[in-house]
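User: Last request for today: this protein with iron/sulfur cluster, please.
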Amino acid sequence: MIFLHRVGALWGAWAKGLCDNVRMTQQPLTDTMACRPGCGACCIAPSITSLGKAAGVPCRHLDAELRCRLFGLPERPSCCGGLQPSREMCGETREQALRWLSELEVMTRPGG
Ligand code: SF4
Ligand code: SF4
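Assistant: Here's the final one, the structure of the complex with iron/sulfur cluster:
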């Protein structure tokens, strides 16, 4: 049950970004935090249909410091601009974020 709650909470956070490759539950974001420098997990682990990005592949817009080159530009996808860091998604370390986002990707894969 706790596990399902975690899935639901993160699902809501992700859905808030209007990513086009996820189903939505629209739960409120209550657990915000600052983005971790040098992480980029949310730009690597999930698939992002609007970018043609496969799961586990770094987004082509990441720079060498794992920052988004499109930040602040109109070309940046709305799903990226709407996604907010949260402890639920980002965890305590980059490795935790990568693992959790990879698991979420598998759990929410259409037909999965
Ligand atoms: S997973 Fe969280 S900490 Fe890592 S880049 Fe994304 S928003 Fe930032
Ligand atoms: S466009 Fe920017 S924010 Fe979106 S996945 Fe790529 S690097 Fe990350």
